[in-house]
Amino acid sequence: MSDHTISVRGRQIPFELKRLSIYELRFYADNPRINYIISSHDGDVTQETIEHKLLALDTTKDLVKDVEENEGLIEEILVIGDEVVEGNTRLAVYRRLASKHPGDPRWTHIPAKVLSSDIKPADLFFILGTFHIKGKNEWSAYEKAAYIHRMVRELEYTPQEVARQLGHQANTVEAMLKAYETMRDSFLPKATKGADEFETQDALRKYSYFEAFYRHKELAQRAKETPRFMEEFSDWVLWDVFPKAECVRSELPKILKNKRAQKTFYELVDSDPEVAYEEAELVLHEHKPEQMDPFYIGVKVFRDLLRDAPVEEIKTNLTTDGPRAKACYEQLKRCHKELERFCRSVGVE
What pTM does this model have? Predict the structure, then answer.
């Protein structure tokens, strides 16, 4: 029995440390990155196809340099049978370096943790989730969502179970599931049609826009009630309407709730998508400064604070004896004085 183990949900999973021939190992088809390569490639997908696609990624090219300079790996790959369940990019890197340095024994064999082939799928996915979602960030946001999607849809975990395992909120997991499915079914078929490798990777990076969309309750509800709206949003992301994903969650709902801003947005988005968001934001800024301008946002917060304040309770607190009542009274007095001074300065009586 091996002396080495990985702790998985309270159980010890044994593994062996070995150096394995890079030519006897296979890429793992269920890895989210590999799975996307397979699903998006026209024609048969061979091990050579996967290797070629991996080596074309900028992240892999950077890793080739790092591993070559370090003369090896810092962390072993994870292997079950002849499949690399964790570390597919590192396997591609070693094959690239073995090709670059023929006969150099440093690159013909790769350090590996070899797990038993009878490991349960749930345990394996727990290990991979710990590596790539809670731990290091080798997977992209889209790949992480693909992993979570498989856990829920195929392995029949509940979103709550996945959330607990990966340290997320359950509603975040729900948003990731919907974002992944929308990307896969609606956005990527259009965004990657006839695209080269760079354009495809750029399309995958748009995942954050869809997660931001579904993490906003009003947008998610609107998509549920009006499926056509989700198609529109996919087109907006495709046309680079929004300067960054954060704008989807923070500003798009405000634009859609304001009649003038919404009208401006829809009038421009088809004909001039590059300016539609900016122009709608300007309209919103003009007619609803309390939603856009930091100063007036603060003014509204202050106004609402005063409106909703428990007046009788505050009056009682101010009339009690003790240093706290005196300090509270002084704070309100200073606030009143500063507000009067400011209003006089800007001409508000």
Answer: 0.63
